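Appendix C reproduces, verbatim, an entry submitted by the partner laboratory led by Prof. M.T., so that reviewers can inspect both the input and the predicted structure.
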Amino acid sequence: MLIIVDKKIPQDAKKALSHYGELLELQTSGITYEAISGHPDIFIHQLNGKLLIAPNLPEEYKQILSRNGIKFIVGEQEVGKKYPASATYNAVSTGSHLIHNFRHTDAVITAMGEDVDLIHVDQGYTRCNLIPINDHHFITSDHGIQRTLERFERNCLYVDPAGIILEGFKHGFFGACCGLHQRKMFLLGALDQYPEGERLKQYLSGLQIEIIELYNGPLFDGGSILFAENI
């Protein structure tokens, strides 16, 4: 299994993650703005166990995926330097939903998601702000996403993004500091250093999700943690 992360995540988090699989550390230059230039969820979308990647993801990473037997599909639109061109692949997929601002979604993603329900939200950085626990439970740091999912009768916990680190910005977003794999929530940071930590612990405990804190520090927006398996 490959675990895809931003090269800039804390070293202690890399060390902890390496016990679960081989790390693929992303780093790009000149494609999009620096703060998100290595974020996996900017260049890669996961849908039904498949990876859909931006055509301008550097070739070296495509080769690493291929060498490890990770199948992927290449999208149509390149990631751009500014929003919304930087949010084309930042959608959220579950077994039954595709959630994004569909004014900005790559056409290949919507085509692949034709058999699931489409839920439009105004936030283009959807995956940065939202992590699905299952088809019915979500955590978000965006009030607009929360309201939309609740209109669809989905349970959505809102957590304040204040205190989440993203270099060059006032704060990052919750979805981008974590990843879910085999009922384990992997967090780039420690919940006792996050004001919403106790609420998150209670919510995840109620859903029988194990929490894995990858380093002892404040939550770090690394553009999500993606787990890619040979399928």
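The chain has seven helices and 15 strands. Additional entries are available on request from the coordinating office.
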